[in-house]
Amino acid sequence: MTxxxxxxSRRTILTALAAAATTGAPVLxxxxxxxxxSAALPSDVTLPDxxxxxxxxxxxxxTNLVEGTSYSRRYRxxxxxxxxxxxxxxxxxxxxxxxxxxxxxIGTSELCLGIAGxxxxxxPGEGMGDPAGDPILPTVHDYFMFEGLxxxxxxxxxxxxxxxxxxxxxxxxxxxxNVLSLHGCKFEQLNLxxxxxxxxxxxxxxxxxxxxxxxxxxxxTEINSAxxxxxxxxxxxxSATLGEFNGSHDKNPCNRTMLAMGAQxxxxxxxxxxxxxxxxxxxxxxxxxxxxxxxFEAFRDACRRAIATVEAGQPIL
Length: 317
Description:
Blueprint: H1 3-23, H2 27-34, H3 56-61, E1 71-76, E2 94-102, H4 108-116, E3 142-148, H5 167-174, E4 178-185, H6 187-190, E5 206-209, H7 213-225, E6 230-232, E7 263-268, H8 269-274, H9 282-286, H10 295-312
């Protein structure tokens, strides 16, 4: 397939996905109608994944995608001010990012909201909070999320972290001492030595990366103490296979902080799904994070304790 044909096929797929998200029509039916006969392939041929957008800017410029239908961006920067000469007030030191939220890497949007101190949502009449409403926890953090909203095929909206050039995302990272960036992966991608890890056979694992070693250590300690499995991507026992997940690139937004270092979590699908009573859809996750037997809250609070530990050593003078 020539580069032009690959680009045209990719655009056809995205057009159908965006239309399906808008109309609710079956994606496969639209693809069948939209694909030229000359592009037909034998039934035993599997198409490769679409070429990834090289930046958020290029994604936003694609006229086949509509913000609010194909994808969304949500963020919150908390208003703070110091107007009294005789008093000193605190300042936000940590931001939470979910660069591949929504249907791209499921569960990361909800965790972003939760760790930031807000509700991921609530079933009607259950009173568990509104993401756009008041915080549900006493301490809050700024956050940014990019979310895939397509009914299927959200992986086409994935932009590699080091290629992220969203102005709000980068401005959020640059104005904080710390960033915790949330990501999703598949367990088999990690190539961990399964003969020894995970010892329980549970494939729910959090790989902790980023250039802030103290932040990584706090996250590993708190997540493990909360009953989950976490490994430091730089641990020599595992680092040989975790290079792709160690968050070491200086252009990764988790490291584009005031300190030029931060932390990220790569959470396996098994771990993310276990945090919800119904992980199958955005609505299901929003209405079931508090129906996971306390797992969502336990993981959320472990991350918040790690943040508090790091911030305790970062006084604003």
